[in-house]
């Protein structure tokens, strides 16, 4: 893995060289994850386009309208939403604070909300269709074009999607969790800035709730694996029985995206 500095993007991570359980590695410069690209600076757009051939945006249409990605003429763009507005903790700037307040008033607060969100992502029709489109694109792409998958922060929908992708490629649960939690290490300054602003302008209680929402905790991603084990008899069976992947599809993915 390696985080690249792209001005205007809070997080841009190359998932290359993550090890699999069969002593292979994810090919570098091929699979990336990031936050939204609406603040991508002009000089950084060329640098980004040199690394990425395809953008897959997992956000809702309302989020895209609120923070549209910068248009890059040489980069292919696809919109595969994973959640609908009622499940989305950050739809638009007008209702983010209202949704945060709602999360705080429900039992379990921010932690319970994220855990519930991850369970919904793998079970709701909208998410299943989006995940299916992501995998179909990866299979058809055959590792020829480099891909950046992103949502708003690059943590929840993107984290769940890559947890499924990496598991399909043979990465262990432990290494998937490391990938997921690396978000904290590379976005600490951004989160601290947001936390401090919330403490000073709003309230310490809401700042803490937002911090828990923005953090990549082991509890969150573990809840995804627990749900897949409980409801679908594991990730492999979920990918085959729900997403519709065949053994040949999984073989193609490993051949094209690992070395």
What does the model show?
This protein has twelve helices and six strands. The protein is an alpha/beta fold and 259 residues long.
* Biggest β-sheet description: 6 strands, mixed
- Percent helix among the residues? 40-55%
Structural class: alpha/beta
**Strand proportion:** 5-15%
What is the rounded Rg? 18 Å
User: Could you please say which CATH topology applies here?
Assistant: Protein-Tyrosine Phosphatase, Chain A
Superfamily (CATH H level) name = Protein tyrosine phosphatase superfamily
CATH architecture: Alpha-Beta Complex
- The poorly predicted ranges are none
The number of domains is 1
- Basic shape: globular
Q: What would you say about this model in short?
A:
This protein has 259 residues and is α/β, with parallel strands linked by helices.
Which helices and strands appear, and what pairs or packs with what?
Elements: E1 2-3, E2 12-14, E3 31-34, H1 42-51, E4 54-57, H2 61-66, E5 76-79, H3 96-105, H4 109-123, H5 125-141, E6 147-150, H6 157-168, H7 173-186, H8 188-201, H9 204-214, H10 218-232, H11 235-241, H12 247-257
Parallel strand pairs: 3-6, 4-5, 4-6
Antiparallel strand pairs: 1-2, 2-3
What labels would you give this structure?
single chain, Protein-Tyrosine Phosphatase, Chain A, globular
